[in-house]
Amino acid sequence: xxxxxxxxxxxxxxxxxxxxxxxxxxxxxxxxxxxxxxxxxxxxxxxxxxxxxxxxxxxxxxxxxxxxxxxxxxxxxxxxxxxxxxxxxxxxxxxxxxxxx
Length: 101
Hints:
About 70% of the residues lie in helices and about 0% in strands. The protein is an all-alpha fold.
């Protein structure tokens, strides 16, 4: 395996994150509950991880700010435009597999 410098690793990880966020922005039809049920994470998880990283670095960001970074718009606006009501089957699957925090 090619040995990467720490800077290269940081740059490549950042690029992969930006590409993932862009992909999710381009696919608002993919609902968060679907992501959670299939992959165990969603857009909100990404924004929470971003917030955790900012806090660890001593940067004061809010949950609303990190959600806007991930969603590309205020969270309430995204929900109003794109969020659909989940059916009972999806809700039951989510409850069964929901992350234990």
